[in-house]
Every structure is written in C-alpha cells, then in structure tokens.
Specification:
Helix content: 25-40%
Strand order of the largest sheet: 3-2-1-4-7-6-9-8
Distance between the termini: 79 Å
Shape: globular
Number of helices: 20
Mean pLDDT: 85
Low-confidence stretches: 12-50, 608-651
Structural class: alpha/beta
Oligomer: single chain
C-alpha cells in the first residue's frame, strides 16, 4: 500500500511538473506574441489576451529586473497608459533596464504585457480613471504606494528600491549617483525652489528645509522601520502621506554633514535631499531651468507645479520633447499652422522683473499683461485660422514676466524662487488646457455651440527629431502685407500665387477670402504665418471674421473659455483672468462687460478703471505692428533671442 501511494505521489508530481513546464512554455509564447504584436501594430490596437497569474509580485520577479542592486518602481492604471509608455521610453534611452511598472488594474496589465514593459499585477481596485490630485482616490493610491515600498523591501531585502511617480521623465541613470551615498538609508526629492548647491551634490539640510516630495525617493533595506512607522501614521484617515513622511523624517533631525547626509527619524537613520536642480520639480525644471543656469545635466523632471491637470502634465513634457507620441502625432491630413509672433523690444524690456515688488499691486502687473496681451492677439488669429482650415495650430512660445502659483506671489515669483525675466512660460500658465482646449466638449459645450475642435501642438513641435521630413520640408511662408503696402498682395478673390517659397495676403480678409487665397497651397504641410494678427478684419465680438454670423458666434464662445488666470496678488480674490478679447468692447465668460481693457479681480470684481493717458499709451504700444520699414523695432521669437535674454536655451 505504501509503495502504491508513493508511486501515485511520484506520478502526480511528474504530472504537475509537466503541467508547470507547459504553463511556462505557454506563457513564453504569450509574451513573445504580445511583443511581436506591439512591434507590428500601433499602440492601442493590440488584442487584450488573457494575462496569467505569473505577473503577481514575487521575489523571483523583482530579482529578474534588478540592475546594479537597484530596482526602480512606478505604478499606474489604464488611464495613465501613455504616461507609462513615455516613462519607460525615457528609461530605455538612458540604458535603465532595472524597473517595474505596477498595473493597478488588469486592463492596464494587458496593455503593459503587450508592449513588453516590465510589470506586475497590483489590481488595487481603486479606479481606472483619472485619480485627480488631492482627491480621495489620490490619497488611496498614496497609501497603496507606501505599503508597496515595504513589500518590495521585504521581498528582496538586499535590493535598493527607487520609487518614481509616473509623471516623471528620467534623463540620466541615477543609480551611480545614489551609490555615491552608501551611508544614506533614504534619499528624497524636495519642493525646495532655491538650490543650496550649484554642483552635483546633495542639498544642504536644514537650509533646504522645504517639504520633501515623495514623488522620487530611494529606500535602502535599513529604512524598513521608517516605512513601517509611516504606514502606521497613515492609519489615521485625514493624514496626507507626504505630510506624514515629512513629520516622521524631520523629527529629531540634525544638520547635514560634508556630503549632505543628515540624521533623521530621531537619529534612527540617515537621509539626504536630492539636488533640486537635477532631481527637479516642475517649477525648477520648466520655469527656472536651474540645470541650464548651473550647467548641469538633469536626472529627472517631475511634472509638479502645473495648473491644467493631466493634460497639462502631458503638454509640459511635450514642450521639452520628453513625451513619447506615436508617428501619427507628427502628421495631420490638413497640415499645420505655425505662428511667427513679433514682439516689440519695449514690451520685453519692460517685463524684466526689475520693478516687481515683494507684495504686488494690480498696477505693477501692467508690464506682464502688456506683454502677454500682445501675444494673445496673434494666438487668437491662429485659433481662428485653425478652426477655419481644419489645420493644427502650433502654439508659439509665450513670454511672461509673472510666475504662477496657487497662493501669493513674492516679487512676481513663487516664494523662494529666483530666475531671469522675461521667460517662456508653460502654456498652462496662460491657457486652460484641461477644460478649455483638451476635451471635445470644452466646459461641456458641444461643437454646435463652440464650433469645431481646435487641435494644437507645443511650441517645440517643429524642432522635435520625430517630425518626419515629409512634414518638415513641406513648408510655406504666408506673409500678411502691412496696411498701405498692398501691391502684389492677394485679396482673396482668387487663389494666391507663389512668390518664391511664400505667398502674400492683404490684411483684413474674411473667412471666405482666406480660404480662397489658400486654395493653391493646401498641399503644403506647414503654413508659416507672419503677422497673422492683421490677416483678419478688426475683431468684434458681434461679427466680421467669419462670413457666417453663427460660425463667428461659435468662435467667440469657444475663445471665452480657453484662457486661464494669472495668480495671485496679496488680496482676495487675488487672481486675474487672461482674455482673448481684451482689446475690444466685449462681455467675458462671467457676463462682465468691458468697454476697454482693465484688470478685474476674480470672477466678479473690478480692480480699477485705468487712467486715460495709461489707456492711450497701452493702445499705442499694443496696436497691431505696421511694418513701415521698421523691422529694427521688432524682435523675432527665436531660440537665439531667448539665449540673449535669459542666458539659456529653451530646451
């Protein structure tokens, strides 16, 4: 009987081994098939095959993806698939193979497997949608993240865990930098805006005393007791994970040593603050550009300090060419509109920041609004052209004097930050990307109320190496003639004739005339418009641009909701709305009537009627530029100009 039982057990074991081998072979075929499908098909078209349980988190899975004793970890749900694709693409460019992406839902897991991205199954059950910063779901995700850190440290105690939020772009391999500090149990990024070091070293603590940011962290095995305490603190429902991290870490902390490492957590471990110029927040990287000022190569950019939700994060990355877009993004059946915006020297010189005070008054924002408003006239004309032609608008770089913040600015900046003005500000500083540009129904309005959707691209689009030659080399200049110099300029009665590699159009054309004039050049992918602001007739909210009055009103309603706010002055309310109709009598999105432009605070308040002389000066300065041989009074927006003004490149 014993021999028979032993034989049965042996046969069962053999059968189990055969079944295991079969499963492993099937899984290998499954992964290979998905990798081949990812190569053969555009992203998003892969079939969603069954993903096996072998993607559960395990020691074997972690050790498989360790690189130089490190593993970098992030996580996302299917809503953030494009973030995960870009995150992984940046890692691969830097030769980083030691990473894992946690799939928060099984649909995300299938997508990651199909693209051959190192991953594991989290299946948190939190949400498959946008988590929304500060929301209940956002905080649930944060708690899951911290439990995850401890799980990794327990599964593979000899491995150093690097935690990275998904809205980051890695530009260098950080593992060698971390290895310079073997005595540090935890290294963390920071919301510090003023660097305490100008070299590739840890910040000096407590001089770098701003909040530690838990979006980028490194944990060595000795940190487990800290993480356990962190988890315990978060058992209280109203505690924010980042606040708890800061409270625990800073309790009983001391000053940093010569290397930047300091005692933390009541002396139980050692920590360091990563250099903020190289492990950079959104404000330090995209606005201050401290890495360029210091001549340092950044390790990572984190899309924090931005103001248009998830779409705003994408656009920030695209502006700096850190986003992974499919080939279709770089072409369009109708082509593109590119705006060449000339800015008078005086506007740029007046926006140098020299006259900004610690606590700004509304009158001290004039130089900023004069500069931005001039550019809005060109952008308004470009939006109309894009809507009329169906082409994609390439946004120009927007020059600003004021930074943007959720609270009061000091000297026109977020408290603690110092940088040169004027500067190219991110699009989300001036425009409402999330609700005004991004959705098919901006603020819920359908196209029959706001006209066709306006597609757009970032200002660096034409410099992106991914742009195919079939697009970049199919380019035509469209010059809008000055008033009084109309000889050789097309009047829109017939298609425009080519003059070299350009066409010349008369100013003040309506929508039908513009379409007629562009008929002969519709095959060109890129139309470079110079002086687009004077192409249309004088703007009026009542009509004149679009020959169909209903189309004009739809356009008016759309542009009412595309701009965002400048924020904030030391008053309540402290924000001021940008306005694409600032130059003419109009009614804004809140039903407030303007006969002439002046600042109104918040959504209802009026700040002050401007003095007659100041209004006259502003109108004179911001009038459409008439090129009467006075090109010397203009500055073309080019990278070389930015280098002259800021001492740094826009990229």
């Amino acid at each position: 009987a014993d021999a028979k039982a032993a034989k049965e057990r042996a046969e069962a074991d053999a059968t189990a081994k055969v079944a295991k081998v079969a499963r492993e072979q099937e899984e290998a075929k499954h992964v290979e098939a998905n990798a081949a499908a990812a190569q053969a098909k555009p992203a998003g078209t892969e079939p969603r095959q069954q993903v096996h349980a072998d993607y559960e988190l395990s020691r074997e899975l972690v050790m498989k993806h360790v690189q130089d004793d490190y593993v970098m970890v992030t996580w996302a749900n299917e809503h953030y698939l494009d973030f995960a694709i870009s995150w992984m693409a940046n890692l691969r460019r830097q030769g980083i193979t030691g990473y894992l992406v946690g799939a928060m839902d099984d649909d995300m897991l299938k997508q990651l497997v199909s693209r051959n991205i190192n991953c594991w199954r989290m299946n948190t059950g939190i949400s498959k949608n946008d988590l929304g910063w500060g929301s209940k779901l956002f905080h649930q995700m944060g708690r899951a993240k911290i439990n995850l850190i401890l799980e990794f440290l327990n599964i593979a105690p000899e491995v150093t865990v690097v935690v990275s939020d998904i809205d980051t772009a890695w530009l260098r391999n950080p593992f060698p930098f971390f290895s310079r500090y073997p005595e540090a149990d935890i290294l963390t990024s920071s919301d510090q805006l003023k660097p305490t070091v100008r070299t590739e070293d840890l910040e000096r603590y407590p001089e770098a005393g701003a909040a530690f940011n838990i979006g980028i962290m490194m944990f060595r095995p000795n940190s487990k007791v800290f993480v356990a305490e962190w988890i315990k603190q978060l058992e209280q429902p109203n505690v924010w994970d980042q606040n708890a991290f800061n409270d625990i870490a800073k309790k009983g902390s001391g000053p940093s040593d010569a290397k930047g490492v300091f005692p933390a957590f009541e002396g139980k471990l050692k920590m360091g603050v990563l250099p903020v110029s190289q492990f950079a927040s959104g404000q330090v990287f995209f606005v201050q550009k401290k890495h360029e000022e210091f001549g340092l190569k950044p390790y990572v950019a984190h899309a924090t300090f931005q103001y248009s939700g998830t779409p705003g994060k994408r656009h920030r990355m695209r502006e700096f060419m850190l986003w992974e877009d499919p080939p279709s993004y770089f072409d369009h059946p109708k082509g593109f509109i590119n705006l060449r915006v000339d800015i008078p020297h005086e506007l740029l010189a007046n926006a140098s920041g020299q006259n900004l005070k610690f606590s700004l008054t509304a009158t001290q924002t004039d130089s900023h609004f004069n500069l931005v408003n001039h550019q809005l006239l060109h952008i308004r004309a470009g939006i109309a052209l894009a809507q009329l032609t169906g082409r994609v608008l390439i946004m120009p770089p927007i020059w600003c004097e004021l930074d943007k913040y959720w609270s009061t600015l000091e000297y026109g900046s977020i408290p603690g930050s110092i940088f040169k003005r004027p500067f190219i500000c991110p699009m989300d500083h001036v425009f409402e990307i999330e609700n005004g540009w991004f959705p098919d129904r901006p603020y819920g309005f359908p196209e029959d109320q706001v006209g066709p959707k306006v597609e757009w691209r970032e200002y660096s689009f034409l410099e992106n190496p991914a742009l195919p030659k079939s697009v970049s080399q199919s380019r035509l200049k469209v010059e809008v003639c000055p008033h009084g110099k109309l000889e050789g300029c097309n009047d829109g009665a017939t298609p425009a004739s080519m003059q070299g590699n350009s066409i010349h159009l008369r100013p003040g054309l309506n929508s039908d005339q513009i379409l007629k004039a562009l008929e002969a050049v519709s095959h060109h992918k890129i139309l470079d418009f110079k002086h687009a602001d004077r192409l249309w007739p004088k703007y009026s909210q009542e009509g004149g641009w679009f020959t169909d009055p209903a189309a004009h009103q739809r356009f008016v309603k759309r542009i009412q909701f595309m701009t965002s706010v400048a924020c904030c002055l030391n008053m309540r309310p402290g924000w001021m709305w940008y306005d694409l109709q600032w130059d003419v009598p109009h009614t804004d999105r809140f039903g407030r009537r303007y006969e002439s432009w002046h600042l109104k605070m918040g959504d209802t308040g009026d700040i002050r009627p401007p003095r007659v002389q100041r209004r006259r000066n502003r109108r004179q300065l911001l009038a459409n530029v008439i090129d009467e041989g006075g090109a010397g009074h203009l500055v073309q927006q080019t990278p070389s100009l930015q280098r002259r003004l800021q001492g740094q490149s826009p990229f």
